[in-house]
Design brief:
mainly alpha, rod-shaped, single chain, 131 residues
Length: 131
């Protein structure tokens, strides 16, 4: 085989097909002629399509990962804020408990000049309606 045959067009490099005998009674419709050039274009286009599809999918995966990372950062920030607010609530509850304790109220009453009533002078009223 000569080197010139390697670079010749596909139609020129192949030997011509032998003529076939056809039956005259039944005539079939001719099939479209497919060239090798069209098939070669498909071979070139197919990897490009797959690479583009794969690159698009990878870009989608990266975008989803970035969105998940941002959501995780927001959740972490909110968890820290929640923990800080819970600590403030506990401090306020402790302060309220200390402010409403009996010894503190008694000391405030004494400063105002109030004294505790003797136990003998204490009586109870029944406010429930009588039938």
């Amino acid at each position: 085989m000569a080197a010139v045959d390697w670079f010749a067009h596909a139609e020129l490099a192949e030997p011509a097909p032998a003529p076939r005998r056809r039956r005259p009674a039944v005539e079939r419709p001719k099939a479209p002629v497919r060239s090798r050039r069209r098939h070669a274009n498909r071979r070139v286009r197919s990897p490009i399509v797959w690479m583009t599809l794969f690159a698009t999918l990878l870009a989608g995966v990266v975008a989803v990962n970035v969105a998940v990372l941002r959501a995780h950062v927001a959740v972490t920030r909110l968890d820290q804020e929640r923990a800080q607010l819970e600590a403030q609530n506990q401090a306020l509850a402790s302060e309220l408990s200390a402010a409403s304790s009996a010894p503190r109220i008694e000391a405030a009453a004494r400063r105002l000049g109030l004294v505790q009533a003797p136990a003998a002078d204490t009586s109870y009223l029944d406010l429930a309606p009588q039938h």
